[in-house]
């Protein structure tokens, strides 16, 4: 660096707010006059919100039934016992009877819930091939390695859909029957099995491979279904818009749950007389009991639920808001008391000084 | 990797620079006398050159110089080896050297060759035939001692340090000199040299013959800050913590696999290579190790470097540290030490050129009871008014306050009233000299007898040697700068000391040349504290002129001038209270007969062999009595601008300032008073000047006893330490003495005190003192002292100095040698600050920070240092926090995902979190944040204290971060979990899927950490806003982009979260959950911030409170407290420590023929 022969001030740093660290700035202060009202306001707002959330969550009706069939607790225990230790379990049916004393306000949604089922287990979660599911023919023939051991069948054919998630597709089925009058006949309640998957999943993410000669079956030729499946994937439904990879039950299942206890939408009840809800009367749910969960201590539940403005029943947020709101106010009071006491003390100290 | 390579490149460049410097020195050319041996050496490199080059001077490189070579040194040449002086161009083989690099003294020192060799002069034949043998001690670091013998022609000659020119000196005023190389920097086998004509035998052959300066150089070391150390420790902790967590999770996995996973194999078979849950859990351990490693903040190191770089740039850019007169901005030469600047506890300052400007000015005098010079108060105002920009910058903080404008205008008036005295009547006046009192000139012009006599005495009574290369351009070479100042003053007032021989002094008095016959010089020494000359005036009167310390001189005065003495003493009190160095001047007219008589006694005493010193001083006392008082002089050792203010500010910031100087004690103490390191309110000052271990120990003990009696009675931890000698480094606790004390310690005593057990005693005593002055220090001792404090106090030390004091000798040549010696001082301290003042860039080149005024130090420490420290601490706290909050969520999730090493977040989020989403806000925080602005930082130096105790980031703070991070991660996991548990959207479709959960947690996390940084930020610039909120906004953009249809369809296996953002974020409960997480994370923080100062008030909080109070209420104008010393202290006398040139001037030898040719002016008779 040459320092000589430079004009006076040549090395003078620029006089900008940035270089001189004088950028105009807002310097907020956490003073008592801000902090205390903040706490009280936040507390009140939270309590208000919490109450709203709590009551709207409480307003939602839920009807749930555990049909796992442990120790003869339900009609399904027969099926459960029959399926014990056999793989694949034999086809078996059971039923759940319930009655509604009053209208179950609609729209009503039918869910199944599994507990102790670790869909979020890492190796389980990655055991899928999204390329295959998005209809890429090459991926259909060559499933990703993550799918192993459900990548290739025993015969060496590529499995479609591959992977542990697809293989463990929930295959119990339910039908709902309504008895309007006591002793009357059971009428089947129409269950809308479409529109249960996310719009994006159904329309964008999951796609069937391109049809071969207008046939989906031909498109899947040369692939094997997952070992646990009884039917090939193109045969999941008769509806061409609901079969193959875009079968909605399948799509719903493929969206793996975050927690070991999870619900998945099975059907919506919104047709005919049932669009406003389930009227009073006796009901029967016929259950095709296929899915083994007792081996790993899981449970299967069937749930009818209504929906409010904020979704399904979940009291957690309401309670949490109430608790946090109360905490805010409590802390506000504590701080106020401390502030007043210590402020006086400090003032005295300063006076002494 | 990036971190390592950046560091490697940086270090590489540093190393290259150092090598370059070394090479420059090593390749510098030197003139070597080629004798038989040398030619052999010469030929081996350049084949074909004939042996006829014998007896010639050949240019060679310094690096090729060997012990035993005879070299020729020329004027202004730097000596790079220790050399035994053989002969020189000057009379009596005198050689003048400047040792500024060694001890910082700019005055010349004289070395004299022994007579046998001096006769050889520049006769090459004789010189090359010289075949003496030198026996000397092994190289050591004492610059003031050398013992050896020269055996030449069968006779032994004693060598002492007067014969030796040390490496690092510069030859001055000497056309040439020949020397024998005694020590070089490198060890070469002496046996190698064939037929040694000159043998140098070093007593202790275990040592390489390093030069004394190299021994004094100290080692340079790679500097790392405390924070760096702490960071490494913490990273280690985190690593262990990580291992612990992974272990817990692996165990959890083992249990889970046994209880559940085993039975779940229908749906999820184990991998073929997993034979049991044990194997699986081992694998999981490593999986979690990978997942959780984001907790070990690798990017931390890079970010820290960036922040330091940014803060270094601020230092470079600071206009308030730009010195306009020298056109030098401040420079942060090291970019790794910034935050350490905010933690400095000890400042070690050089004196000359650092505290002082190294300019002595004759500022006031009292002649025959009349005061000349301007009064102090006026001077203060004048300074304020005329002070150039640099000075005003130093008084920053008062700027812009009402009142200062008024002061300036007042000052301007005063300035017009007392402008510089015009010396144009005097052709020989030194143009650099300035004086502000016209009355003195008027008195001179009027021909006031006393004034004339006063100046005559000043122009006669000294040992200055003049040099007049161009006629009319006189340059004085004085043993002490004070003397130079006095003679210069006399010169400007019209009493020009023009030339001297050993018997005459020529003075041009008001244009008229007068020759005084020099009869005797009664030289100065430390006991006498005075010097006299006896001259015969042209009128044939014998006069004795004496100047000396007032305390001594007033006892020698004639009773008749008692009243005058009292008046003068009053003036002297005034002078001393202004921190000026004072001398009394007196004369005595001698009876011719009396003088003859005395002269005989004098020569008798002089020739006596026994007890000569004593006899001489008795003789001196005989004649130095009944003196007539003439007056007193006051010399100002000019301090740099704003030094006292800076030192006051620094001591308010509880920074201890030690002055380490090569200067003599009196000067150092005087300066210490002048710049407020010592003040008169101090309860006492201890002087340690013992010559052996026992006395030094006694002195230190008694000092400590006085300061804190109980500290000796208590069971002394240091004694315990010394008896047990544990391995662990020992930290000496801070002790509070009973009052304000000062300690002055001498270089000689220090040499003892630094040995063995005494060093702790010294440290304990010294650290209790308010100020410590160490004088007559060698560079190595400086480094040792710094090292001592650093080692046992575990605090940050800063060394400030300017290094060499002369620009001309350095100009053009970089001096790695000198650099090394200075580097030792700097390297020892945590931070080295170079003053790139009058003396060029050399100090700067080795320092970590460099600027041109001492007063910028307060800005460097209190503003830049504090900010850097605060920013770094905030950065670290936040950085650790955000990584904990981020990573630990995985830990909680493990309990709900079968310990399967499932990550909570999308892989893209993990990649971007540190790199993109959170990097800018935290950088913004650590580059722009200021808790209080610079004005307040300087106004309330107390704000600096937390840094010294490292309060803002330490292990405790780290644990707080950890706890906070754990809490946040709990909130961040369980709130979203509760929210999505069995939840469905308003259209009945479930939302509790893994991908939605990830998105919610990510979003909450980012909102929480953004809020956290918003809380930390106290200074919201536009850039902070953009960085903070922009990053959050950017996150959402990225989120929607990564989860968009197009991208996900293009790479379905890479971007798997198609549509999740849309489906999740339009659900109101997600936002309710995000808000809940944010509030839950913020509440304790706000509460803590609010309650902490109330429950545990720290001083800093009060100060900040006051600042905020002041900010909202306009300030009363600050009343400037004048720095005034109470006039009780009067030890200041202006003399060099050493004996002057007197003996040389009047030595028995007659004048050599070339003496007048060189140094004196042809006489006009």
From TrEMBL, chain A:
Keywords: Membrane, Transmembrane, Transmembrane helix. InterPro entries: CDC50/LEM3_fam. One of its GO terms (molecular function) is aminophospholipid flippase activity. GO terms for cellular component: endoplasmic reticulum membrane; Golgi apparatus; phospholipid-translocating ATPase complex; plasma membrane. It is found in: Membrane. The chain crosses the membrane at residues 34-55, 316-340. Pfam families: CDC50 (PF03381). It comes from the Eukaryota. GO terms for biological process: positive regulation of protein exit from endoplasmic reticulum. Belongs to the CDC50/LEM3 family. This is Cell cycle control protein. It comes from Camelus dromedarius.
UniProtKB/TrEMBL annotation, chain B:
Its EC number is 7.6.2.1. The keyword RNA-binding does not apply. GO terms for cellular component: plasma membrane; trans-Golgi network. Mg(2+) binds at residues 350, 352, 802, 806. Its cofactor is Mg(2+). The chain crosses the membrane at residues 233-256, 276-302, 875-895, 907-928, 961-980, 1000-1020, 1032-1058, 1070-1091. It catalyses: ATP + H2O + phospholipidSide 1 = ADP + phosphate + phospholipidSide 2. It is found in: Membrane. The active site is at 350 (4-aspartylphosphate intermediate). It comes from the Eukaryota. GO terms for biological process: Golgi organization; phospholipid translocation. Its main location: membrane. Belongs to the cation transport ATPase (P-type) (TC 3.A.3) family. Type IV subfamily. This is Phospholipid-transporting ATPase. It comes from Camelus dromedarius (Dromedary).
């Amino acid at each position: 660096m040459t320092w000589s022969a430079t004009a006076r001030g040549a090395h003078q740093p620029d006089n900008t707010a940035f270089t001189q660290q004088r950028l105009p700035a807002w310097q907020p202060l956490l003073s008592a006059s801000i902090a205390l009202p903040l706490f009280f306001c936040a507390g009140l707002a939270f309590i208000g919100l919490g109450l709203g959330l709590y009551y709207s969550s409480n307003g939602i009706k839920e009807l749930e039934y555990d049909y796992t069939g442990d120790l003869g607790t339900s009609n399904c225990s027969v099926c459960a016992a029959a399926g014990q230790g056999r793989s694949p379990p034999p086809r078996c049916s059971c039923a759940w009877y319930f009655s509604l004393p009053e209208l179950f306000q609609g729209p009503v949604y039918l869910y199944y819930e599994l507990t102790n089922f670790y869909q979020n287990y890492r190796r389980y979660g990655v055991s899928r091939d999204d390329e295959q599911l998005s209809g890429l023919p090459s991926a259909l023939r060559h499933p990703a390695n993550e799918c192993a051991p459900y990548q290739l069948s025993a015969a060496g054919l590529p499995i479609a859909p591959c992977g542990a998630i697809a293989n463990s597709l929930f295959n119990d089925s339910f039908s709902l029957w309504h008895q309007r009058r006591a002793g009357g006949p059971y009428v089947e309640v129409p269950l809308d099995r479409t529109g249960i998957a996310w719009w994006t999943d159904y329309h964008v993410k999951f796609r069937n491979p391109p049809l071969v000669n207008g046939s989906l079956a031909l498109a899947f030729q040369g692939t094997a279904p997952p070992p646990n499946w009884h039917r090939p994937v193109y045969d999941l439904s008769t509806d061409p818009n609901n079969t193959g990879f875009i079968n909605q039950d399948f799509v719903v299942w493929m969206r793996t749950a975050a927690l070991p206890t999870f619900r998945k939408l099975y059907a919506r009840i919104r047709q005919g007389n049932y669009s406003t809800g389930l009227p009073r009367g006796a009901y029967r749910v016929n259950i095709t009991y296929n899915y083994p969960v007792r081996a790993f201590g899981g449970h299967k539940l069937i749930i009818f639920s209504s929906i409010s403005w904020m979704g399904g029943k979940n009291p957690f947020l309401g309670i949490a808001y109430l608790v946090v709101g109360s905490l805010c106010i409590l802390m506000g009071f504590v701080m106020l008391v401390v502030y007043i006491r210590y402020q006086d003390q400090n003032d005295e100290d300063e006076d002494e000084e | 990797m990036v971190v390592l390579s950046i560091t490697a490149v940086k270090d590489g460049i540093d190393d290259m620079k150092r090598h370059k410097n070394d090479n420059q020195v090593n390749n510098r050319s030197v003139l070597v006398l080629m004798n038989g041996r040398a030619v052999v050496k010469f030929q081996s490199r350049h084949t074909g050159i004939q042996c006829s080059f014998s007896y010639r001077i050949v240019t060679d490189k310094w690096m090729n110089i060997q012990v035993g070579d005879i070299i020729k040194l020329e004027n202004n040449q730097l000596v790079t080896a220790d050399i035994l002086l053989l002969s020189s161009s000057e009379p009596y083989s005198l050689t003048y050297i400047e040792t500024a690099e060694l001890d910082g003294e700019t005055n010349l020192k004289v070395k004299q060759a022994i007579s046998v060799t001096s006769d050889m002069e520049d006769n090459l034949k004789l010189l090359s035939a010289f075949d003496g043998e030198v026996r000397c001690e092994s190289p050591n670091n004492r610059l003031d001692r050398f013992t050896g013998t020269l055996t030449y022609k069968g006779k032994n000659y004693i060598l002492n340090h007067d014969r030796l020119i040390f490496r690092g000196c510069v030859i001055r005023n000497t056309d040439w000199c020949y020397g024998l190389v005694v020590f070089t920097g490198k060890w070469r086998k002496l046996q190698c040299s064939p037929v040694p004509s000159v043998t140098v035998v070093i007593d202790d052959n275990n040592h390489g013959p390093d030069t004394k300066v190299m021994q004094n150089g100290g080692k340079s070391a790679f500097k790392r800050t405390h924070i760096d150390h702490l960071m490494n420790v913490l990273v280690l902790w985190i690593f262990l913590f990580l291992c612990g967590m992974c272990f817990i999770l692996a165990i959890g996995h083992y249990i889970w696999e046994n209880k559940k996973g085993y039975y779940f194999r229908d749906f999820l078979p184990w991998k073929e290579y997993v034979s049991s849950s044990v194997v699986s859990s081992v694998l999981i351990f490593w999986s979690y190790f990978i997942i959780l490693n984001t907790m070990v903040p690798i990017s931390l190191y890079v970010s820290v470097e960036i922040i330091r770089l940014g803060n270094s740039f601020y230092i470079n850019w600071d206009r308030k540290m730009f010195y306009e007169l020298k056109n030098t901005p401040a420079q942060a030469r090291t970019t790794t030490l910034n935050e350490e600047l905010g933690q400095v506890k000890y400042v070690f300052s050089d004196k000359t050129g650092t505290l002082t400007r190294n300019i002595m000015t004759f500022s006031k005098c009292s002649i025959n009871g009349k005061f000349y010079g301007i009064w102090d108060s006026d001077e203060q105002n004048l300074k304020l008014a005329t002070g150039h920009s640099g000075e005003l910058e130093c008084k920053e903080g008062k700027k812009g306050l009402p009142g200062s404008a008024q002061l300036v205008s007042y000052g301007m008036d005063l300035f017009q009233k007392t402008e510089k005295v015009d010396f144009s009547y005097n052709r020989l006046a030194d143009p650099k000299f300035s004086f502000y009192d016209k009355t003195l000139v008027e008195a001179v012009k009027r021909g006031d007898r006393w004034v004339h006599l006063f100046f005559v005495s000043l122009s006669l009574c000294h040992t200055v040697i003049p040099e007049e290369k161009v006629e009319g351009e006189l340059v004085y070479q004085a043993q002490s700068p004070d003397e130079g100042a006095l003679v210069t003053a006399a010169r400007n007032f019209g009493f020009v000391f023009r030339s001297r021989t050993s018997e005459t002094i020529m003075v041009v008095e008001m244009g008229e040349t007068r020759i005084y016959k020099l009869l005797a010089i009664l030289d100065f020494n430390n006991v006498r504290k005075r010097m006299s000359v006896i001259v015969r005036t042209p009128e044939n009167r014998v006069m004795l002129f004496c100047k000396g310390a007032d305390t001594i001189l007033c006892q020698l005065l004639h009773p008749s001038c008692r009243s005058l003495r009292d008046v003068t003493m009053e003036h002297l009190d005034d002078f001393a209270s202004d921190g000026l160095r004072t001398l009394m001047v007196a004369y005595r007219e001698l009876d011719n007969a009396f003088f003859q008589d005395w002269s005989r006694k004098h020569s008798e005493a002089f020739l006596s062999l026994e007890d000569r010193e004593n006899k001489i001083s008795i003789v001196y006392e005989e004649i130095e009595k009944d003196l007539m008082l003439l007056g007193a002089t006051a010399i100002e050792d000019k301090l740099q601008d704003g030094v006292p203010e800076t030192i006051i500010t620094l001591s308010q910031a509880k920074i201890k300032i030690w002055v380490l100087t090569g200067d003599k004690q009196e000067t150092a103490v005087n300066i210490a008073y002048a710049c407020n390191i010592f003040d008169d309110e101090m309860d006492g000052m201890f002087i340690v000047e013992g010559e052996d271990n026992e006395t030094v120990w006694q002195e230190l003990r008694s000092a400590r006893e006085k300061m804190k009696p109980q500290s000796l009675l208590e069971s002394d931890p240091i004694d315990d330490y010394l008896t047990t000698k544990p391995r662990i480094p020992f930290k000496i606790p801070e002790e509070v003495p009973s009052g304000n004390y000062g300690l002055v310690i001498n270089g000689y005593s220090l040499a003892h005190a630094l040995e063995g057990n005494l060093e702790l005693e010294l440290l304990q005593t010294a650290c209790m003192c308010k100020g410590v002055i160490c004088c007559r220090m060698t560079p190595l001792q400086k480094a040792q002292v710094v090292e001592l404090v650093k080692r046992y106090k575990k605090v940050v030390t800063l060394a400030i100095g300017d290094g060499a004091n002369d620009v001309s000798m350095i100009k053009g040549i970089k001096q790695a040698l000198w650099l090394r010696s200075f580097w030792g001082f700097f390297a020892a301290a945590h931070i080295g600050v170079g003053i790139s003042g009058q003396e060029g860039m050399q100090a700067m080149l080795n320092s970590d920070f460099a600027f041109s005024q001492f007063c910028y130090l307060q800005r460097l420490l209190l503003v830049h240092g504090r900010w850097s420290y605060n920013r770094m601490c905030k950065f670290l706290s936040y950085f650790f926090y955000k990584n904990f909050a981020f990573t630990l969520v995985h830990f909680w999730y493990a309990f709900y995902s079968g310990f399967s090493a499932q990550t909570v977040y999308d892989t893209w989020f993990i990649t971007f979190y540190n790199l993109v989403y959170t990097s800018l806000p935290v950088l913004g925080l650590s580059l722009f944040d200021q808790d209080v602005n610079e004005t307040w930082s300087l106004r309330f130096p107390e704000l600096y204290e937390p840094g010294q105790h490292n309060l803002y980031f330490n292990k405790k703070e780290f644990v707080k971060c950890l706890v906070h991070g754990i809490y946040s991660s709990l909130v961040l996991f369980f709130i979203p979990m509760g929210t999505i548990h069995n939840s469905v959207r308003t259209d009945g479709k479930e939302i509790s899927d893994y991908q939605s959960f990830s998105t919610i947690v990510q979003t909450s996390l980012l909102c929480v950490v953004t809020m956290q940084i918003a809380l930390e930020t106290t200074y919201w610039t536009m850039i902070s806003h953009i960085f903070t909120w922009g990053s959050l906004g950017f996150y959402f953009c990225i989120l929607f982009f990564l989860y968009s249809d197009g991208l996900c369809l293009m790479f379905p296996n890479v971007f798997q979260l198609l549509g999740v953002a849309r489906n999740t974020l339009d659900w109101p409960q997600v936002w309710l959950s995000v808000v809940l997480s944010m509030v839950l994370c913020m509440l304790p923080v706000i509460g803590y911030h609010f309650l902490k100062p109330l429950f545990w008030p720290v001083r800093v909080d009060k100060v900040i409170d006051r600042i905020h109070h002041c900010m909202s209420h306009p300030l009363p104008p600050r009343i400037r407290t004048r720095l005034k010393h109470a006039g009780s202290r009067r030890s200041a006398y202006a003399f060099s420590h050493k004996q002057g040139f007197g003996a040389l001037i009047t030595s028995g030898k007659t004048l050599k023929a070339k003496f007048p040719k060189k140094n004196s002016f042809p006489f006009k008779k």
